[in-house]
Amino acid sequence: MIDVPKLTQREKDVLELVGKGMTNKEIARMLFVSHALVRLYMSRLLEKFDASNRTELVVNAFRSGILDVRD
Description:
The protein is built from four helices and no strands. It has helices spanning 9-19, 24-31, 35-48, 54-64.
């Protein structure tokens, strides 16, 4: 298990949708925010989970226990 970073509720929302395979554009529509704001959340999530891409982000979030991709 890796360190569990502190996340805002919106970061958790974005992470969950990334885990479901949604694109940034789809996430922006779903959360009623701009595409640029989703990119900002993604940047923060990638940094917090020491990930270089979406796949690594999901794997690291799953390993930390924050994300359950079985839903």
